[in-house]
Write a structure and sequence with these properties.
The complex is a heterodimer.
Chain A: H1 5-14, H2 19-39, H3 43-59, H4 70-92, H5 94-101, H6 113-123, H7 127-139, H8 143-150, H9 154-175
Chain B: H1 5-20, H2 26-66, H3 68-75, H4 78-90, H5 93-115
Helix pairs in contact in B: 2-5, 3-4
Classes of the chains: A mainly alpha, B mainly alpha.
């Protein structure tokens, strides 16, 4: 039976070697890097940010009290790293242009055209909407965990998620033909039955 | 249970993206960087601790000279005469205190390193 995150954190705190933390890294690094890429970082930036996140998590492990879930705590560090790193660069222009256009080839995962369309749709959201919907719908955190990770009020996170879903639905309705969509999600019924313009 | 198609779409796409990144050597890179960073920090702490110990030890010769009048006065006191005489004449005390200071500094360094991750 696999140890829980909490068990591994307790072991990592107690043990002088890296074995328990190794297991935590192996368990979370894929999703963490995917999250950073979906947020808008290119592959290299996402890996650098993920490395910094994990190193900081290791150094701050003694301060983790277990009040929030380990994933929530880890993604909070990643979110701050993203804000400090990628957003500064984007403000300087290069990535900003790519994000605004939603056409950065580096940001698009190599999983097919629809995935690229989805990446473009995500790029049309603002940072908090994108982070909220990714944490709740993609990573699988609860609204409360996402709220803790983003440092945003719970009600705001719920609003961001709902608004992001509507924007994604509208973007995909407007830009992706039904034939190009995965079979499981051919139809995107809007909650109010109205198509939303971007 | 996911009720919204957008939620399902995001979850599926994200799971595929994360799965592609699972076994590409990234974990080894992180752990290598962690080990290097830890070794560098430990080396720096040892160097700082050693330098501090040597500096602390070097101060004791001067400090004991300041106390020589006191030792001389103690020498006149019958009860303390033997001990004071031993301190003053055998010239062991400064080196002994310096060694003790260095040992304390190294012990403190070791304690810091024990808590170092």
């Amino acid at each position: 039976m696999a140890l829980s995150d909490t068990d591994l954190v307790m072991l990592a705190k107690a043990a002088p070697d890296h074995a328990a933390f190794d297991a935590l890294v192996r368990r979370h690094q894929g999703a963490l890097r995917a999250f950073l890429r979906k947020l808008g970082a290119d592959a290299t930036q996402a890996d650098d940010l993920a490395q910094d996140t994990l190193i900081k998590a290791y150094r701050r492990l003694q301060t983790y009290q277990g009040g929030a879930s380990f994933r929530s705590w880890l993604y909070a560090i990643a979110w701050r790293e993203f804000l400090q790193g990628v957003r500064k660069e984007r403000a300087a222009a290069r990535l900003g242009e790519a994000m605004a256009a939603g056409m950065s080839e580096e940001a698009a995962p190599p999983t097919g055209d629809f995935s690229l369309d989805l990446q473009r749709a995500l790029a049309s959201l603002d940072d908090l909407e994108r982070a909220s919907v990714l944490l709740c719908d993609a990573v699988g955190l609860s609204h409360g965990e996402a709220s803790a990770a983003l440092g945003a009020p719970l009600g705001s996170v719920k609003t961001y998620v709902a608004r992001a879903r509507e924007k994604l639905r509208a973007f995909l309705d407007a830009n992706v033909p039904q034939a190009d969509r995965p079979a499981s999600v051919v139809d995107f019924p809007a909650n109010d039955g109205v198509r939303h313009a971007l | 249970m996911r009720s919204d198609p957008i939620e399902t779409l995001l979850a599926t796409d994200f799971a595929a993206a994360a799965a592609e990144l699972e076994n590409d050597g990234f974990t080894a890179l992180v752990l290598e960087r962690l080990t290097k960073a830890q070794m560098t920090r430990q080396a720096l702490i040892w160097i700082a601790g050693g330098a501090g110990a040597l500096i602390a030890g070097a101060q004791f010769a001067g400090m004991t000279r300041l106390f020589s009048p006191l030792v001389a006065a103690m020498d006149q006191t019958p009860a303390l005469g033997a001990a004071a005489s031993n301190l003053a004449t055998n010239a062991v005390a400064p080196q002994l205190f310096a060694a003790a200071a260095i040992a304390v500094a190294f012990a403190a360094t070791a304690l810091v390193l024990q808590g170092e991750r």
